[in-house]
Amino acid sequence: MKKNLTVVKFHSHPGGYPEFSRYDDESDQSFFSAVDNILDNHDARASVVMLPDGRFFGRHVRDGVLGEPIDLFRIAGDDFEFCRRGDDGLEESEPPEHAIRLIQTFGEGTYRTLRQLRIGVVGASGTGSIVLEQLARNCVGELVPVDPDHLERKNLNRVLNARGSDADKKRLKVERVHEAILEMDLGTKVCPLPNDISDRDTILTLGECDILFGCTDSVDGRHVLNKIASHFLIPLIDMGVRVDADGKGNVDQVTGAIHTVLPGGSSLMSRGVYTQTDLNAAFMKKHEPERYSEMVKAGYVKGAEVDRPAVISLNMLVAAYAVNELLARLAPYRVDPNAEFAQRRISLSDPLASSHQGDGERCVAFAKRIGFGASEPLLGIMDL
To answer: Is residue 382 classed exposed, middle or buried when 0-12, 13-18 and 19+ CB atoms within 10 A define those classes?
Structure first.
């Protein structure tokens, strides 16, 4: 256990008995005592029981003591599943009036799941503000918006709830999002983080989320977010919008992409969203700006576009696809299985070029540290 991993014991109850039996108690005591002796430590461990209907339940084990029940099992597959202890409804006996239409569409089970989810959204600008708005109005329990930037006048054409006065005061984007969601009064909690995604505490907070949304254009931001998803076994939905203008008032190309990335599968890098060269340039720009400028001038590095064309209607389209992707995986409603929609590409300039496809080959680079959680070095990056 040099890598700070642990031991989890799995067994099944074919008859469906939903509790630990006295035989389980005896077996666990014997098994974990042997494990402690062999490994010469008393680290946290767990015992899990699988039931025929697909449910799980389990308990923590430490120092030979059979401890508290495990609260949550998160299954980050093509369908997103969450098995919670005592999942027999929320505190409210009747759903609130604002949830009725949602329940009519996706069912009360999906509503209950949404109410218990903690979702991290990296980027609170163009697509990010729209994703956050949708998630809040779909009754998500808690949102964790991450964005270090403040509002500017150039943001007002595409950031929801942004006002001229906010830009003049240089208010933080996550601060305005926090305020707007609380004003909705729909019961959603907000934990705003005005930090860069490479901030250590921010990474650890995102690692406690149930689902992650990527709403950032930065290569390094996408890379770190994909690492968080892989290390902490969290499903990630990433999105991007691209508008290529010809500089003469015309549009050459309008496209969007939505990627659902699952732990242990392909990554944004292996799918070609960015390359190692792009990543090297992004980190150089961030940590060695003078050298980056010199390399761009010399032609060794391709400079990134600072201000790309952006229109709210296009952002809304892609953000809506992304949130509907979440809903489709919580309450499968498509004719085809979710496995076929890991990668979605939308073209408004050439609709026939729109496509969807499955996951693709497993990413060997990300697979090396899958499920490592908060083990050091954090995310396998020495500087964190």
So the answer is: exposed
Closest listed residue to residue 31, CA positions, set 55, 64, 58 = 64
By CB atoms closer than 10 A (0-12, 13-18, 19+), residue 379 is buried
Cis amide prior to 289 (ω within 30 degrees): no
Sheet holding 343-347, edge to edge: 189-190, 142-146, 118-122, 211-214, 236-245, 251-261, 343-347, 355-357
**Start-end of CATH 3.40.50.720 domains in the chain:** 97-380
Integer Cα distance of 177 and 362 in angstroms: 36
User: For tokens 């025929």, what's the residue?
Assistant: 52
- Please choose, from the candidates 194, 215, 240, the residue with its C-alpha nearest in 3D space to the C-alpha of residue 125: 215
> What is the DSSP pairing of strand 251-261 with strand 343-347?
antiparallel
pTM higher than 0.90 for the full model? Answer: yes
Judge whether 322 and 127 are in contact, CB under 8 Å.
yes
Which DSSP state fits 380?
G
Q: Which of the four pLDDT bands, split at 50, 70 and 90, describes residue 229?
A: very high
Secondary structure of the chain: what % helix, strand, coil (to 5)? Answer: 40, 20, 40
- Report the run of H or E that residue 76 belongs to, with start and end: strand 72-76
pLDDT in tens, 118-146: 999 999 999 999 999 999 999 999 999 99
pLDDT digits (tens, 9 = 90+) for 249-301: 777 888 999 999 999 999 999 999 999 999 988 888 888 888 878 887 777 66
Judge: domain 97-380, CATH 3.40.50.620: no
Tokens of 131: 């994703």
pLDDT of 24-39, one tens digit each? 999 999 999 999 999 8
Q: What digits encode the pLDDT tens for the residues 185-211?
A: 999 999 999 999 999 999 999 999 999
